[in-house]
Amino acid sequence: MKTLSSYLKGAWVCGQGKGATLHNATTEEPIAEASTEGLDMAGALDWARTVGGPALRKLSFAERGAICKKLADAIVAHRDELLLLGMANAGNTRSDAKFDVDGASATFAYYAELCKSLGDAHYLVDGEPIPLGRSSRLSGQHVLVSRVGVAVHINAFNFPAWGLAEKAATAIAAGMPFVAKPATSTALLAQRMFEVMLQSGALPDGSAQLICGSVGDLFDHLGAQDVVAFTGSSDTAAKLRGHRRVLEKGIPVNVEADSLNVAIAGPDLEPGAPTYDLFLSCVVKELTQKAGQKCTAIRRIFVKAEQVDTVVADLTDRLSQHKVGAPTLDEVTIGPLSTAQQKADALAGIAKLAQEAKIVFGGPDKLTLHGADASKGYFVMPTLLCATDGDALKAVHSHEVFGPVATVIPYRDGAHVIALAGRGEGGLVASVYSDDKQFLQEMALGLAPFHGRVCLGSEKVAGAFIPPGTVMPHLLHGGPGRAGGGTELGGTRGMLLYMQRTALQGFGPYLEGLASVGKKL
Questions:
Q1: pTM for the full model?
Q2: pLDDT per residue over 271-324, tens digit each?
Q3: How many angstroms separate the CA atoms of 286 and 49, rounded?
Q4: Which of 68, 295, 386, 455 is catalytic?
Q5: What angle do CA 501, 507, 509 make, to 5 degrees?
Q6: Which of 33, 166, 256, 286 is labelled catalytic?
Q7: Please, what are the domains in the chain?
Q8: What is the pLDDT of residues 412-450, one digit of tens each?
Q9: Is the Cβ–Cβ distance between 120 and 495 less than 8 Å?
Q10: In the annotation, is 295 catalytic?
Q11: How many whole angstroms separate alpha carbon 429 and alpha carbon 453?
């Protein structure tokens, strides 16, 4: 069994004692273990601040982009190896593993091009000069400069490759060193990808470190210039935000947490129409891709009351064509969940939702596997529920089942569906499918306060539409309320977490000179 080491202070090191065990999600066979007991977390942070930070900050945006380009190329070169690790450790089908690994390389490639476009500048200029008097002699100018601390990245189990890359790329672009801590249960892929990144020779000393296992006392040594970016449960997020050191030092904590994402079928949709087919395709993809283990997966499906029976029948027909089983088999489209705990939580969640809505497809007692032993593995059948009264629901609007599970909910009109969607108290993404311009406008503006992204699907974009569960580095990823209130990616917007916005005041022409050396947002 492999022992996963951490990369700290420029060397691979192993913790003491017996570590946490990683399993093959299909067979439950132990495949690795990881421990951080006794590792020097304080020294790792100091190494990042004193070695990695200065090395990155002296580089221009274009030079940081060249780093991202080499990292993207390295991941692509080792793609097949990384896909196999995703299939073994995380239970991904090959298609799902591609989604994760290719998302990682694509994110680095995007930031490579973005940084190239920012050129030789080292800082960003925010807005135009602001006169502070009757003449331009005294002016103000906002600029953004790299923070001089270290970024701590705590990633979720479901995207060990992409999750690491999206945080790393933005930190590198902003000129800030990072310490990445992938979820231990799927760290086998994350560790190997990090090793590939190091072997590329692109990363300056101290700019990147990796923790495989517990964070230990890492948070006790954070300082006022450090930042934390976290993806995971809202319960863990609350603990991190409430950490003594975080509160004392005012350390920014960016959180992406739970999300009861919605899909809304417009009242104008007719079976067989391109937009209706787009709606069905997106819902089924988000139910089945990564076995529903996506923070952006659709959890609530809103349909006009008179359309419910038709939509349920059509979704059931499409779901019945999917096969659950060993992810190494070509015909299998849905693999197991990543861990035993995830399976237990998903089954408990289905039981909770079933007290309010009827299971119309799948369910815990309908497990049919292909090429896998039903007595082993972390398998959950895709499960579709249907409610009769959206207003009466409580658990469906408040409890996210992190697996292949979603609920169909009837609505009366636009105002009603916006109100029902809002009961999720904040989501990462909402998607709307309609060819009615007025309805799309009502949904876009009505859903926006509750969601980080709103995707508008129609016949005009049906052939090019990107499913709502696909996070694009060009656009912000994050959401208000339950979703954590944080933002990642979004081009230069994702870099702002790692930079300090400062208002400069002084002689106008001098500030104009400073601004001319920076790059405008």
A1: 0.94
A2: 999 999 999 999 999 999 999 999 999 999 999 999 999 999 999 999 999 999
A3: 40
A4: 295
A5: 95
A6: 256
A7: 2-119+143-257+486-508 (3.40.605.10), 261-475 (3.40.309.10)
A8: 999 999 999 999 999 999 999 999 999 999 999 999 999
A9: no
A10: yes
A11: 5
